[in-house]
Give the backbone structure.
Amino acid sequence: MDADAIQALVQNAVQAALQGFQQQQQQQQVPPAQPVAVPYADVPGGAGNDPWDFTSGSGLKVFINSTKGLETKFDGNQAKLHPFLLHVSKRAAAYGWSTILTIPDGGNIARSLIKEYGTLS
């Protein structure tokens, strides 16, 4: 067998494999799901049953105010940790997010990240 014959065999094999792959893809194709544009989001932390409507002024204001940066920044200085956690706690209480700041420790005991951060690793 010469080089031209080998090249022809390889090209035919590749062509057959591609056709088989394309046929398999066509058989398995499921029509793509149509995206649903819903301008709502569940309230973080599960506080309340009413979703936030981002198309309304009030829903957008709640989102912006709840997610804006805190005035107190934490730079790793131990003296600034307590004021920072106090601000985080106030923001969480104001928007009903205290539950998302409660996490289980190694013994599966629910601990407040704000008040019991020293017991968590």
Q: What stands out?
A: Residues 40-119 form one domain. The two ends are 69 Å apart (CA to CA). The chain is about 45% helix and 10% strand. The beta strands are 40-41, 52-53, 102-104, 110-112.
